[in-house]
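Exercise 4. Each item below gives a protein and its sequence. For each, produce the structure-token representation.

Item: HD-like signal output (HDOD) domain, no enzymatic activity (Aquisalimonas asiatica).
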Amino acid sequence: MRETSTVLDSASLPSLPYVSHDILLEVNTEEADINVLAPKLGRDPALAARIVSTANSAFFMSQGDVRSLDEAIMRLGMNRLRVLATSILLRNQFDSSRCPGFQAARYWLHAIATANASGRLARASGLDPAPAQLGGLLHSIGVLLLAHSFPTEMTAVFSARRRDAHSSMAALIREHLEVDHHEAGAMLLREWELPVTLCAVVEGMGSPAAHDDPGLLGLVRCAADWAAADFEEIPAALLNRGLSGATLDTVARACLMEQEETTAMARLLAAD
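Answer:
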């Protein structure tokens, strides 16, 4: 792995408060229990308030006001809650406002769409969807980190990418910072003491062989590519994972049905 200390070191990385770390791990377990989760979420009043306000937003509101965290969790459901709570916790650790080239709504839209697709693909494969969903949500967290830490350099990267949409994001970032977003993201997650398997997914996303990986990395890589293509053409690597075309068509339809909701959530996250 490329040495990252030339631009990043542990002292310069955003810290993850203990309460946030505890919530992050708890909410992203498949066996998450509302009776355990609600009190933990309540330890972060700002997070709890945002979850309740989101449940009361025009998009999610259906039958009257939600007035408690328990009600909000029930209305949103665990899959939405997992993505929303994790996204809010992550967003709160970064300030990308000094990087005008960073498009927050676009970033969160792709991250959430990838998370949703990863979770559905894992479930269809008989795997635990929780780590897949988290891997999908965090797969490009290095972009968020670098926009926070190096806004000037990343603005130049985004400008170059707009001029040539086919250019490699990783190559452009390395050109300016001697590290790419995959390496930087993995370094951050290791600093935050998140699971080793998750760090490996984030770091491996840029590998040419990632699509063919039979494990979680390959699943998330395929989900990210599929989400970027608006779930139109099924990636060949997904068919090679033993999933039938009919199953993948079902996953694609479900993801497309979620697009309006995903867009609304991304805008909420980008608004602050």
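Check: The chain has two domains: 11-93, 96-272.
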